[in-house]
Specification:
- The chain is of the alpha+beta class and 267 residues long.
- Among the domains are: 91 residues, Tumour Suppressor Smad4 (Sandwich); 91 residues, Tumour Suppressor Smad4, CATH 2.60.200.20.
- It is 16% helix and 36% strand.
- The protein contains 3 helices and 22 strands.
- The strands form 4 sheets. A 6-stranded antiparallel sheet has the order 2-1-11-10-7-8, with no helix packed on it.
- Strand 1 and strand 2 form a beta hairpin.
- The longest helix is centred in the last third of the chain and has 23 residues.
- It is elongated, with a radius of gyration of 35 Å.
C-alpha cells in the first residue's frame, strides 16, 4: 500500500501520516485536528490495513461527512476522499500516480476498464473505454459536465494495458487523482479522479466471470491436487489371493495326516 496522509487543503498544517494500524484523531489545545494518543479523547479513528482504510466515528458525534455525505458510525475510505470533521476538511491522499506515456507512443489497451461516477451529476453511471472518452462542457463530449466554469474539453481518458491514461486537453486547474493535483497520469484500478472539486470518478477493472464448465474443471483440478498429497491407500487384493495362506495351511495339515495314516497303516 502506498503512503497515506491526511492533508489540509490549504496546507495550513503539516500532513498527518497514516501508517498501518489504528490512529485516533482529536483536537490539540489550539483546536487543530491532530493525531492523539488517548483514544478516549478521539472524535474519530482511522484503521489502516492491507484491505484499505476504515473510518470509525465516536458515538453521538454529529457533523462528520465524507465527500459531502454524513457518516454516523463507519465508512470505508479511498485515497482522494474529503473528510469533514466538525467544520475542518481533510483530504486522504496517497503517492502521486505514475506519469502518462508520451504522446505518439502506441498504447497496448485493455478496454475492459470502466470509469464509474461516485459523486456529482454522474454518480452511479459507468463508462466503458472501448474508445477514448472526452470529459468537458461541449455537447459532443462523452462525459458531459455542463457547468459555466467547466472547460469545453477538460480531459481525455484512454484505455491502457495497466489502467487508464488521463490526458489534460484544455482545463484551467487540471484534475486531482487520489488527492494529488495532476494534468497527465496513468490511473490504476481503484484510483479516484476528482474534477472541479465535486465530480468524482473511480477506475475499476471488472472481475472475470467463470462459466459452469470452467468452475467444475477448476474444482476437479483442485481435488486432484489434494489427492496427490494424500498417502496412497493399501492395495485391495483379490479374494483368491487373500485366501492363499489358509489353503497352504490346509494342504500342509492334510499332507501330515496322510503321512501318519500311511505310516501307521503299514504297521
Amino acid at each position: 500500500m502506498s503512503a497515506l496522509k491526511l492533508r489540509y487543503p490549504n496546507r495550513e498544517h503539516a500532513d498527518l501520516p497514516l501508517k498501518p494500524g489504528v490512529h485516533a484523531i482529536g483536537r490539540d489545545p489550539a483546536g487543530r485536528t491532530v493525531l492523539v494518543e488517548d483514544a478516549g479523547a478521539a472524535i474519530a479513528q482511522f484503521s489502516v490495513d492491507r484491505r484499505g482504510v476504515w473510518l470509525q466515528v465516536r458515538e453521538g458525534l454529529r457533523g462528520l461527512h465524507v465527500n459531502g455525505r454524513p457518516v454516523k458510525r463507519m465508512a470505508m475510505l479511498r485515497p482522494g476522499d474529503a473528510i469533514f470533521l466538525d467544520g475542518v476538511e481533510l483530504l486522504l491522499v496517497s503517492d502521486k500516480p505514475e506519469a502518462a506515456p508520451p504522446f505518439g507512443v502506441e498504447i497496448p489497451a485493455d478496454s475492459r476498464m470502466v470509469v464509474r461516477g461516485v459523486g456529482g451529476i454522474h454518480h452511479g453511471r459507468c463508462y466503458t473505454l472501448e474508445q477514448p472518452r472526452v470529459i468537458g462542457r461541449a455537447g459532443d463530449c462523452d462525459i458531459r459536465i455542463n457547468e459555466p466554469a467547466f472547460a469545453d474539453r477538460h480531459a481525455r481518458l484512454e484505455a491502457h494495458a495497466d489502467g487508464v491514461v488521463l490526458r489534460d486537453v484544455g482545463s484551467v486547474d487540471g484534475s486531482v487523482v487520489n488527492g494529488q493535483p495532476v494534468r497527465h497520469a496513468l490511473l490504476k484500478p481503484g484510483d479516484q479522479l476528482l474534477l472541479d472539486g465535486q465530480h468524482r470518478f473511480v477506475i475499476e477493472a471488472p472481475t472475470r466471470q467463470f462459466s459452469a464448465a470452467e468452475a467444475l474443471q477448476a474444482q476437479l483440478a483442485q481435488e486432484a491436487a489434494a489427492n496427490e498429497d494424500r498417502p496412497p491407500p493399501p492395495s485391495a487384493l483379490p479374494a483368491s489371493v487373500r485366501r492363499m495362506p489358509w489353503l497352504l495351511l490346509a494342504a500342509v495339515v492334510m499332507a501330515g495326516l496322510l503321512g501318519l495314516l500311511l505310516l501307521y497303516g503299514v504297521r
